[in-house]
Design a protein that fits this description.
The chain is 40% helix and 16% strand. With 354 residues, it is an alpha/beta fold. The strands form three sheets. A six-stranded parallel β-sheet has the order 2-1-3-4-5-12, sandwiched between helices.
């Protein structure tokens, strides 16, 4: 195996000069630098990254911790993060917490042991702050998508505007004549769940529509959560004419539950959701969705993090980047009804299920 001393001997320089070239330091003449780089290429020399990390106190590695990597939202976000990391010669360690704060803590401890230079985190809970030991080690952190209850001036965040997105999506349903709208979101401990309910409440309030607490379901951001919450909503004596899924997986569960009851979308019940799933956009009735710029979130979060790692950023206070989501109107919410006409409401004397 070629060593740094082999490269130095062949290039006619000292090992210290080769080290300076590898690490991009000043003090090497252009002609010498070019000769060393050419020798490195000819010999196939690979610098010892572990040794360099001890010398430079950098591993050029970042951790990306998300709650469900199977969700296309986080997959797309991860792609944006990885693209920027690779462009800046950083590697990414991916960690999946399954919405479990305990698992999140284990991964953060693992990343600290791996001496990562920084961490991008989608918190599993807004109440469980596991960042103290990372901050004590001066490891930069950027939150994505979700907020923590206790804000720290050293922790940046990049997120979508969930309140605005939920507000616009609910207003869209109202404009179609719906007045009885159910909403299913994730656990109350997740900031986006509360934000989306807040946007929903605001839209109903501005339209003069009474808020029925029974129509608000805190479940989990999963297909199972959407399925069982939808069954509860559709079992109501006066069931909703529309259901707002807090994310794409909830909408998938809702769709299964609706079809099991032999109901049609949007004829019997409208369905909209946050986030898109490419395959669902190709299947009738084509979901109306509020899409967040997941790729941009990953890109911006990684740029902020690398800026902190390399000390390029002079801004010391917390940075908060809020991106606007986009409403994509398809067929699953129904057609525009004539002015003054509401969506058909259904009442039942008994439960839908035995």
């Amino acid at each position: 195996m070629t060593t740094i001393y082999d490269v130095a001997r062949r290039a006619g320089v000292s090992a210290m000069t080769v080290s300076r070239v590898i690490n991009g330091r000043k003090g090497v003449k252009p002609a010498t630098r070019e000769r060393v780089l050419k020798t490195i290429e000819e010999t196939g020399y690979i610098p010892n990254s572990l040794a360099r990390s001890f010398v430079l106190q950098k591993t050029r590695t970042i951790g990306l911790v998300v709650t469900d990597i199977t969700n296309p939202f986080f997959t797309t976000l991860a792609r944006g993060a990885e693209d920027i990391a690779a462009r800046n010669q950083f590697s990414v360690i991916f960690c999946n917490t399954d919405e479990n704060p305990e698992k999140e803590l284990l991964y953060l401890e693992f990343l600290a042991r791996k001496r990562v230079d920084g961490v991008i985190l989608a918190p599993a809970s807004k109440k469980r702050n596991s960042l103290g030991f990372l901050l004590a080690k001066n490891i930069p952190i950027v939150l994505v998508d979700r907020e923590l209850e206790a804000k720290d001036s050293r922790v940046d965040i990049v997120k979508g505007d969930s309140i605005y997105g939920a507000y616009i999506l609910t207003r869209h349903l109202i404009s179609l004549g719906h007045r009885r709208i159910g909403i299913i979101v994730g656990n109350r401990d997740i900031s986006t769940a509360e934000d989306r309910v807040e946007g929903y409440r605001r839209a109903l309030g501005e339209s003069g529509i009474p808020i029925d607490e029974a129509l608000i379901k805190f479940a989990s951001y999963s297909e199972e959560g959407g399925y069982f919450a939808t069954r509860e909503l559709l079992a109501m004596r006066k069931r909703p004419t529309a259901i707002f899924g807090g994310n794409n997986f909830i909408a998938m569960g809702a769709m299964v539950a609706i079809r099991e009851l032999a109901l049609r979308i949007p004829d019997d019940v409208a369905l909209v959701c946050f986030e898109d799933i490419d395959c669902l956009s190709r299947i009738y009735p084509f979901l109306t969705v509020m899409v967040q710029p997941a790729y941009s979130m990953g890109v911006i979060a990684t740029e902020l993090l690398i800026g902190r790692i390399e000390g390029r950023d002079k801004i010391r206070e917390r940075r908060e980047v809020v991106l606007k989501p986009e409403l994509i109107v398809r067929k699953s919410a129904g057609e525009q009804l004539p002015e003054g006409v509401r969506a058909k409401e259904h009442s039942y004397d008994g439960c839908l299920f035995s």
